[in-house]
């Protein structure tokens, strides 16, 4: 059911420092920071030949990643995003088998303006999974 790995998201305490690591140490192509107030994050996109890394910094009071950064002050892998062809079909198959979808189960528009859902880490090997309709 899942297709390509769309991105891995890493929460970081300092976007400039993280960009320097990916650009200067690892030699990747790194975007300028992009503020996404509707998602409560500022993002730097790291382009890899076969996927993307998204470096995330909390933005605003109600950022969904503030708590995560509190628990992981030096940063850490936050979620993995897999592409699916039909997100409603994917959701229904998963929930029929007992997997938990976070929130109200209705897809929202993600960072790439495509429908996304998040799946409960306890049902997926301790990993927060984002599904994005490609
Ligand atoms: Co994501």
Present the secondary structure layout.
Elements: E1 5-11, H1 15-25, E2 29-30, E3 34-36, E4 41-47, E5 52-58, H2 66-71, E6 76-84, H3 87-96, E7 108-109, E8 115-119, E9 129-133
Parallel strand pairs: 1-5, 6-9
Antiparallel strand pairs: 1-6, 2-4, 3-4, 4-5, 7-8, 8-9
Cobalt (II) ion binds at residues 7, 9, 54, 79, 81, 111, 130.
Structural class: alpha+beta
CATH architecture: Roll
* Unreliable residue runs: none
In CATH, the topology is named 2,3-Dihydroxybiphenyl 1,2-Dioxygenase, domain 1
Bound molecules: cobalt (II) ion
CA-atom Rg in angstroms:
15 Å
What fraction of residues sit in β-strands? 35-45%
Spell the H/E element sequence. EHEEEEHEHEEE
Total strands: the figure is 9
The CATH homologous superfamily: 2,3-Dihydroxybiphenyl 1,2-Dioxygenase, domain 1
Q: Main beta sheet, described?
A: 9 strands, mixed
């Amino acid at each position: 059911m899942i297709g390509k790995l769309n991105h891995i998201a890493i929460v970081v305490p300092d976007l400039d420092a993280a960009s320097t690591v990916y650009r200067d140490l690892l030699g990747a192509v790194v975007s300028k920071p992009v503020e996404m107030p509707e998602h409560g994050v500022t993002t730097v996109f790291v382009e890899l030949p076969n996927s993307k890394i998204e470096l995330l910094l909390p933005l605003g009071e109600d950022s969904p990643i503030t708590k995560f950064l509190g628990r992981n002050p030096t940063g850490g892998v936050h979620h993995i995003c897999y592409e699916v062809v039909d997100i409603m079909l994917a959701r229904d198959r998963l929930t029929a088998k007992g997997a938990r979808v976070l929130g109200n189960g209705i897809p929202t528009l993600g960072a790439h303006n495509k429908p996304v859902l998040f799946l409960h880490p306890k049902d997926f090997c301790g990993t927060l999974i984002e599904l994005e309709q490609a």
